[in-house]
Amino acid sequence: MTIRTGRHCVFMLHAHLIFITKYRGEVFNEVALQRLEAIFKEICRAFEAELTEFNGERDHVHLLINYPPKVQLSKLINSLKGVSSRKLKQEFVYLREHWICKKSGSLWSPSYFAGSVGGAPLSVLKQYIEQQDRLL
Questions:
Q1: Residue 22 belongs to domain with CATH number
Q2: How far apart are CA 49 and CA 72, in angstroms?
Q3: How many domains does the chain have?
Q4: For residue 101, is it within any domain?
């Protein structure tokens, strides 16, 4: 994994995100998932982030994102879900016509999973910090 630099910082921040469709509806096919990956990459570039890994099934997607500390993860997630929903419904008639979008107007469930990943396990970090010399 690459360590990135900013103007005043050195960082390596990764998040594992999971988005599920509204009502866990099975709406995605392979073509929609490929387009979804491209849309997510565009959005990440706008945030100076990188979509490192992507995969999905008919009712949910997994993303691994490398992002800078100046990005609020909640704002990135909001953009990923909002823009992708709008663009997919514009480009794929079958999604607009699907009962999920007709019933709720929304493609994604309002909830999501976000987990930080990478680096040393918490137990190792805790031990490292505990072992630092303290000036009293």
A1: 3.30.70.1290
A2: 11
A3: 1
A4: yes
* Count of Cβ atoms closer than 10 Å to residue 9 Cβ: 10
CA distance 14 to 68: 9
Token pair for residue 136?
């009293």
CA distances from residue 80 to 16, 19, 48, 118 in whole angstroms, order as listed: 13, 10, 13, 22
Q: Rounded CA gap, 49 and 131, in Å?
A: 34
The stretches of 47-92 forming alpha helices (DSSP H) are 73-91
Q: What is the pTM of this model?
A: 0.88
What pLDDT, in 10s, does the model give residues 53-107? 999 999 999 999 999 999 999 999 999 999 999 999 999 999 888 887 777 788 9
For residue 97, the enclosing domain spans: 4-130
Query: 16: which residues sit within 8 A by CB, 6+ positions away?
Result: 62, 63, 64, 113, 114, 115, 116, 117
